[in-house]
Amino acid sequence: MLRISLEQWRMFKAVVEYGGFNQASAAIYKSQSSIHKAVSKIEESLDIKLFKIEGRKTLLTDAGHLMLRRADYLLEEAQKLENIGHTLAQGVETHLKIAVDEVFPKQVLYRALDQVSEAFPHLRIELVESVLSGANQLLNDLEVDLAISAFPSQSGVNKELCTIEFVAVASPLHPLHESDEALSFEDLKHHRQIVVRDSNTQQKTDAGWLEAQQRWTVSHMNTSVDMICAAMGFAWLPKLSIQHHLDQGRLLPLKLKQGQTRHASLYLVFNDSDQLGPATQAFVDALESEVRC
Predict the structure, then answer these.
(1) Does 283 score more than 70 pLDDT?
(2) Is pLDDT above 80 for 293?
(3) How far apart are alpha carbons 248 and 16 in whole angstroms?
(4) Do 194 and 224 contact (CB within 8 A), yes or no?
(5) How high does pLDDT run on average in the chain?
């Protein structure tokens, strides 16, 4: 039988999170005596010291640091267990919110969404378009139910969906097409590169920038495509998304000595497979099926 309750672990964590017993008391609406008793109960039950006092500061001991890591995991798993219970109690979910990297093939996404809507006609679907690590941030912040991301999650569940081919392009009117010789990366650095900004607001990723002397950063891929079609710069763009521009001659692949094309994987990412409701699971299945076609 467990000698320490989840609530006692939660109060221990609150002391650490808020910087002391007084602060924890105010933050979680528990009396200071209750919090002191909870911490004392843990220390007595395990025969360890969790905190040490230095001046006015309440600091973790080495044992306290170790127990905090374990307590974080325990409380997180308990929260997941409750969430699964809520999911089961609610039955079929009514809302599905998805973060989608802008480079993911739109027609594949639309077909998968259409299948889910036919099976669950009352499901409300919300798409949040993201760039680079932005989808992961939305998932980590619990703002979306699942994400199609350029990066695997460090803590969630990852399924590799597909590989996207990027091609270096510029307008046929751009000076980079004037040379008959194959271009090097050093040649490219003398021209403006159009870069799409990472939509992650906390930890941005710089992917694909060559440290060109001029760099224009935009928020959406469509803006990048428009600028490049207007001969304002060059970029590596997903081939599927610009195929019609290539077919109509508005964009031309750059003749490079190396690296004319690049490849990147996209992942389907979610926090916990047990928390997926029937409609969300149906979307996952439909998306994987469409990618295989």
Answers:
(1) yes
(2) no
(3) 61
(4) yes
(5) 89
- DSSP β-bridge partners for residue 41: none
Tell me the C-alpha distance between 112 and 291, whole Å. 9
CA distance 103 to 131: 8
CA distance 171 to 229: 5
DSSP state of 3: S
State pLDDT tens for residues 168-209.
999 999 999 998 899 999 999 889 999 999 888 776 665 666
Q: Does 164-263 match 6-90 at the fold level? A: no
Can you give the pLDDT at residue 207?
60
d(CA 142, CA 165): 30
pLDDT confidence of residue 90: 57
In angstroms, rounded to a whole number, what is the distance separating the alpha carbons of residues 74 and 46? 16
Is there a contact between 151 and 204 (Cβ–Cβ < 8 Å)? no
The correct answer on CATH 3.30.70.2570 for the domain covering 6-90 is: no
- In Å, how far from its chain's centre is CA 153? 7
CA 237 – CA 260 distance, rounded (Å): 11
**Domain ranges in the chain?**
6-90, 95-162+266-292, 164-263
Angstrom distance (rounded) from CA 8 to CA 34: 9
- Does domain 95-162+266-292 fall under CATH 3.30.420.60? My reply is no
pLDDT of residue 129 exceeding 80? yes
What is the CATH topology of the domain spanning 164-263?
A: D-Maltodextrin-Binding Protein; domain 2 (3.40.190)
pLDDT at 272: 80
